Amino acid sequence: LGKAIAEGAVDNAQLRDVNDAIRSHAIEKVGQKLRGYMTDMKRIAVAG
User: Fold this and answer.
1) pLDDT value of residue 8
2) How far apart are CA 31 and CA 3, in angstroms?
3) What integer pLDDT is reported at residue 1 of this predicted model?
4) 11 near 17, Cβ under 8 Å?
5) What is the pLDDT of residue 48?
6) Is the CA virtual torsion 14, 16, 18, 20 positive or negative?
7) pTM of the predicted model, to two decimals?
């Protein structure tokens, strides 16, 4: 993670698997909820 790729190609299946693993991590679940709250607060601020 965070290292440069020597070649220009990325295996799409591997990339999909890594993205799925990141999305299902507990920290990301909390982040998703917090981002939802921030979006809701933005709507309130714009409406008010």
Assistant:
1) 73
2) 24
3) 66
4) no
5) 64
6) negative
7) 0.54
Instruction: Write a three-state SS string for 1-48.
Output: CCCCCCCCCCCHHHHHHHHHHHHCCHHHHHHHHHHHHHHHHHHHHHHC
pLDDT tens-digit readout, 1-48 = 677 767 778 889 999 999 999 999 999 999 999 999 999 999 888 876
Q: Are 22 and 28 in contact (CB under 8 A)?
A: yes
In one letter, which amino acid is 40? D
Round to whole Å and give the CA distance between 36 and 30. 10
**CA dihedral (41, 25, 23, 11) positive or negative:** positive
